[in-house]
Amino acid sequence: MTKLNTAMLAATTALAGMAFAGAATAQDTWRIGITQNNVGVDSYQTTYESAFIAAAEANPNVEVVVLDAGGDVARQIAQVQDLIQQEVDAIIIWPTNGQAVIPAVREAFQSDIPVIVTNSNIAEDGFPFVASFSGPDNITQGRRAAEIMCTRFEDLGIQDEAQIVQITGQPGYTTAIERAQGFEERLPEVCPNVTLVESQPGNWNREDAQRVMEAFLVQYDNIDGVYSGDDNMGVGALNAALAAGRAEGITFVGATNFAVGYDAMGRGEYWGSIYQSPVDDAEAALQTALDVLNGEDVPFLNYFDTPKITQENMDQYDRPVF
Amino acid sequence: MTKPTLSGLIKNGAIWGFIVLELIFFSVAGHFWSMSESAFMDFGNMLLLLKQSAPIGIIAVGMTVIMINGNIDLSVGATYALSAVVMLDSMSWPIFAGLGDWVIPVAWLLALLTGVTLGLINGLIVWKTGVDAFIVTLGAMLGYRGLVFMYNGEQPTYHLNWTMVDIAEANVLGLETPSLVLIAVVVIVWLLMTRTVHGRNAYAIGDNREAAVNAGIRVGPHMLLNFALIGFLSALSAVAFYSASGSVNPNDGTLFELWAITAVVLGGTKLTGGSGSIIGTFGGVIAIQLLRKGLGYIGADTETVNLVIGTILIAVLFLDKQLNRKGQEELKV
């Protein structure tokens, strides 16, 4: 009942606003609940939480209920049920498990509470119950990495003969698949003569990536570039090349700029990456929720921008905290 | 078995008094701190509380029996996870492909069977080797968890069946399936412990094992049955919870043993065995879930919740000790 009234009030306010002031929007206070994956497990998630709270405090029309599932699926499901019970206007969820939360998300959907998924998406079975996904676009990240790599080869004048290898994330993991897909699609478009000689999974793990790279170095006498699914693995590959004394001639490009990658760029050993900020991630999630509540047309996959970062422009970005 | 003493009554009453205190506190505090417009004591919220108490509650009931026996079972969380994995995985086994939705009861049965088997293994080792249950189930906790990881690596086991979700979310008089299961388990095991020979023997064994043996109670088989019971209940808890969620992470149920033990101890059961009650445990479970929910309701974060529950547990044990001592002194007079 309350929710209906709120919605009606919002609608009438919006109508009145449009009628009399033209550009005014709904001035009702929105109550938004968020249940996060596991704050404190890494600094990306910790920064995300404080950025989210800061963004909510900066907006007088928003009240937030901030919850953390602590990585526990059962607790996250209970939190979603609590938020439904508290009749919040929208729920933002960072899934602990992309499948297990689907029934809980459906419950919210059935109670007419829009659900926004943040950072990593839920499984496709749950899409009908989700208003929007706010997070990074991994295909674009892969494509941009290919562009960084190609531009660098052009500067070095080796765009017609370069050979590269790829170290992907965990097999079967959507982020890993999408980044590799974007990279492999874009590379022949910008640098048709660069050959991708081999791809191997590094499982998001630095040691695994190092082992994969050691094998590559033995196998191929000529490696000009390495693309890794994230900087963590990229630094593993870099370490292997440094140990073999062959890092000098290799262009290393990664994604999700980690502090280790940023520092390696500062030392001139690592060439470039994709900058993914938890602050942008958090602010995008809140904004997506507000847009949905204000009845704006929000794309189902609502990506926030993750720009290119290389040795040349890294001074424009803060050192990542993770 | 001793008759309920005055201190026993106070203790049993204490947990309910504590629950009332929590309800009053969160209702009042909610007025000042909560963002929510609905009251904490809202009927729907209380029903939800019962449902959310179910996973740990069902296990805690079994844990009460084990602890009255003077044993402990640390492997319940791993049993819970493994039963869930068997349940969800079996639904996509080719042999059951022709069953349609009838695969659901089959999967449930297999999960329960898994739980009972794991419980029997624990019980058998405790019985036949005489090694302390703490050590046996500590090993089982690691071993069963290892099996969970062997089954599907680090990947979640996933099978979403909307019919099963609908059954799990079905409700009778506002009580959803997990709540009904919890209530049924509490009532049945309470009857078992208060109205049957098995129940009286459980207290006798926990109170004084030597005396129980001398009285002709077959201690080994008795414990075996209780371990089978807690295995069954761990699996039942998994069935009630995972039917509604359809996906299990390999580390699900971690720390469940400690939450269950916390609830049991809060409910007045002694760690040394020989005394305790199912209804008290039910109160302990409700008290913990109420704290979690209430602190979330007034905007406290997860770390605070754990800190508060830990503090209260120690306070309750201290209070219990004081009350017990007073009770004994009173009896002397």
List keywords for this structure.
heterodimer; A: 322 residues; alpha/beta; Rossmann fold; six-stranded parallel sheet; four-stranded parallel sheet; 45% helix; elongated; disordered N terminus; B: 333 residues; mainly alpha; two-stranded antiparallel ribbon; 13 helices; globular
Structure description:
- Chain A is of the alpha/beta class and 322 residues long.
- Chain A has 2 domains: 2-130, 3-Layer(aba) Sandwich (Rossmann fold), CATH 3.40.50.2300; 138-276 and 310-316, Response regulator (Rossmann fold), CATH 3.40.50.2300.
- Chain A is built from 10 helices and 12 strands.
- Chain A has helices spanning 2-21, 43-58, 73-85, 102-110, 138-156, 174-190, 206-219, 231-243, 259-266, 278-293, and strands spanning 30-36, 62-68, 90-93, 115-118, 132-136, 163-168, 195-201, 225-228, 251-253, 272-274, 301-304, 308-310.
- In chain A, strands 2-1-3-4-5-11 form a 6-stranded parallel sheet, sandwiched between helices. In chain A, strands 7-6-8-9 form a 4-stranded parallel sheet, sandwiched between helices.
- The longest helix of chain A is centred in the first third of the chain and has 20 residues, at 2-21.
- Chain A is elongated, with a radius of gyration of 22 Å.
- Chain B has 333 residues and is mainly α.
- Chain B has one domain (42-323).
- Chain B is built from 13 helices and 4 strands.
- Chain B has helices spanning 6-33, 43-68, 76-90, 103-129, 133-152, 162-169, 177-195, 197-207, 209-214, 219-245, 256-266, 278-297, 302-332; strands at residues 157-158, 171-172, 175-176, 247-248.
- In chain B, the strands form 2 sheets. Chain B has a two-stranded antiparallel ribbon.
- In chain B, strand 2 and strand 3 (175-176) form a beta hairpin.
- In chain B, helix 11 (256-266) packs across helix 12.
- The A-B interface holds A 2, 31, 39, 63-68, 70-75, 77-79, 81-82, 85-87, 96-97, 99-104, 106-107, 123, 125, 172 and B 35-38, 42, 44-45, 48, 51-52, 55, 155-156, 158, 160, 165, 169, 241, 244-249, 251-252, 292-293, 296-297, 299, 301-302.
